[in-house]
Amino acid sequence: MQSYQNILDNLEKSDFRRKFILKQKDKEYINQKGLNVIKEHAYHFIKDRLAPAYPINDGKQTPTKNHPVFIAQHATATCCRGCLEKWHKIEKGRKLTDYEIDFIVELVMAWIERQLDKTA
Question: What is the dihedral of CA 41, 30, 105, 70, to 10 degrees?
Fold first, then answer.
């Protein structure tokens, strides 16, 4: 399996994925809450909005703003089951495994940390 950094490098080749960046208010929110809390939020969002075999409003369930995890999901193609299938070969129509949920959360967090490092 590719490293998270290699996956992120490949995703950055996409004009669409590359346009998602953390704004200053997102970074301030992360600094206020801490990365551990943001990771907890990521687990909650992924389990609730993405993990079911047939998520409610699939393809539109992840907003494009209002939380750093949502922005990261779009940047990492983990925003809906269609993107998961296209970019990460995780097929639609079945519940995500714990391993897949962990993979998605770790990828989201790697992207967030990369964004934070860009301004450090």
Answer: 70
